[in-house]
Amino acid sequence: MKLASFAIAAAAAVLASPVVAAPVSTLAGSAGCGKTHILPGITSYHSMTSSGRERKYSVHLPSNYSDTAPYPVVLGFHGSSSVGLFFEVDTGLSSDEFSANKIMVYPDGIGGAWAGANYSEISVDEDLQFVTDLLDEIRGEYCVDDTRIYATGMSNGGGFVNTIACSAVGGQFAAFAPASGSYYTDNDARHSTCTPARPQIPLLEIHGGNDKSVLYAGGAGEGGDEPAIATWLGWWAARNGCDDAGKTVEDSFDGDVHHTSWTCGGAAGVLQHWKIDDMGHCWASTEINFSQIAAGEGPTHIKASQIIMEFFDKFTKP
Hints:
With 318 residues, the chain is α/β, with parallel strands linked by helices. The chain is built from eight helices and twelve strands. The strands form two sheets. Strands 1-2-4-3-5-6-7-12-11-10 form a ten-stranded mixed sheet, sandwiched between helices. A two-stranded antiparallel ribbon has the order 8-9. Strand 8 and strand 9 form a beta hairpin. Helix 1 (5-11) packs across helix 2. It is globular, with a radius of gyration of 18 Å.
């Protein structure tokens, strides 16, 4: 979905101020441990060179960031016609409620989009190389727990999160959580090219049953063909060796919300899905956000940001 420009402009005005929280890891950290950063708790903006091209990203550190305590890192990928700032504000992921003990990183796509769609300006290989280069830079500048690196994103950004999970680059991550994802690189024609880096890739997806931009039933999307979400989940169940006999479905909110969880290789909840029947193309939140306004909707029953962060907390990279 291409989000309204007014929302992007307004986003800068409402960045939440974080609250003090403690680090969660005592493991040996990355090369960036020991480097001091001024004004933690305030999002900072950066640029770097990847594949000969200038790339931009922002970083939000916990307000009591310690350069001697390794932190988990979460990469957040915006949707099309957008930037990392909009995703940060729309999701609230930098707030203490969701990431008090995590380093948040918000990269910007080229031309406001990520690779994989027919409107994308660069190749999948170049964007995947950017992810690798970005992680190298983050490890070198900040104190990172390398076993706890995660990725989430919405729409085109959610689709790119899936592209990462289907690639060798995904081996650097512990878990993935796309939302309302447009899975152009993992559709009926291309799903066999998905080759995850490990036998089990923890993955959680959230999707609206009333999504008019990325149809739950699949079909022609803005940037190419998209799979039916149920079919796409079946592919991930097979990739992760999930047991259908151990699949559970919990309905709530008078049957409007459905949470499906699979046991994979004896581990519960490796693959999870949340479907909200009456939700359109937006970031699920119990408080109104910009993507809900753009979709002409109000708040939803669940908080995607809370669900995703709690999911990430359960997994470390082997």
